[in-house]
C-alpha cells in the first residue's frame, strides 16, 4: 500500500519549513549571509541540520528564497510610494526616499541585498531585484514624460541609472566597516545622505534641482 501523507503531516512540514525560513531571515538580518550558518539556523529553528536539507536542496536554495522574500518586502514599499498622490516626480522622490531610508534603518539586511558577496544563485536573485526596481522606475518616468514634468528621454536607460545611482551611493554607508562610524551622529548623517541622493537623481532626470 502506497504511503499517503496526512494533512497533519503536511501542516507540520509546512510549519517547519516556515520556521527555518524565518530563522534564516533573522540570521541574515543580524549578520548577513556569510554569518548565517546552517548549524545556527537549525538550532534557532529547533530542527536537526539534516531537516533543513529535506526542505531546501542546498544552502544556496535556502538563501535564494530568503533573498526573494526580503527583496519583495522592499519592492512592495517602493510600489506603495509610487502609487501615492502627486506628480511622477513627487512619486519618484517618495520612492527613492523610501528605498534609502529603509536601507539605512536596516543596514545589515540592506548591505546583504545590495552589495554583500553572495553565491551565484543568490546573485541571480539580486539581478532580478534590480530589474524589478528598474521596471517600476521606468513606468514612473514614462508617466512623467506624458505629464510633461520629465523631459523626453530613454525611460529604460534612465531607470537603470536610478537603480545604479541609489544602490552605489548606499554601498559605502551600509558597508560593515562604515556603519559604526555613522552611528555617532546617525540621524543628521542619514537625512543629509538621503536628501543628496534624491536631489542627484531628480536633477539627473529633469535637469533641475528638486
Amino acid at each position: 500500500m502506497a504511503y499517503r501523507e496526512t494533512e497533519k503531516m503536511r501542516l507540520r512540514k509546512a510549519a517547519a519549513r516556515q520556521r527555518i525560513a524565518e530563522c534564516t531571515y533573522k540570521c541574515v538580518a543580524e549578520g548577513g549571509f556569510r554569518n548565517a550558518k546552517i548549524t545556527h539556523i537549525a538550532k534557532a529553528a529547533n530542527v536537526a541540520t539534516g531537516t533543513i536539507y529535506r526542505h531546501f536542496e542546498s544552502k544556496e536554495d535556502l538563501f535564494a528564497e530568503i533573498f526573494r522574500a526580503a527583496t519583495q518586502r522592499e519592492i512592495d514599499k517602493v510600489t506603495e510610494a509610487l502609487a501615492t498622490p502627486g506628480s511622477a516626480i513627487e512619486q519618484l522622490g517618495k520612492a527613492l526616499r523610501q528605498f534609502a531610508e529603509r536601507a539605512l534603518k536596516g543596514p545589515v539586511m540592506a548591505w546583504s541585498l545590495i552589495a554583500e558577496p553572495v553565491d551565484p544563485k543568490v546573485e541571480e536573485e539580486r539581478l532580478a531585484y534590480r530589474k524589478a526596481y528598474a521596471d517600476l522606475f521606468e513606468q514612473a518616468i514614462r508617466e512623467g514624460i506624458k505629464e510633461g514634468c520629465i523631459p523626453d528621454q530613454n525611460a529604460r536607460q534612465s531607470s537603470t541609472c536610478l537603480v545604479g545611482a541609489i544602490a552605489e551611493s548606499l554601498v559605502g554607508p551600509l558597508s560593515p566597516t562604515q556603519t559604526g562610524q555613522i552611528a555617532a551622529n546617525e540621524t543628521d548623517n542619514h537625512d543629509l545622505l538621503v536628501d543628496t541622493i534624491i536631489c542627484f537623481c531628480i536633477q539627473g532626470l529633469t535637469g533641475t534641482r528638486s
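The chain has ten helices and no strands. The chain has a mean pLDDT of 91.
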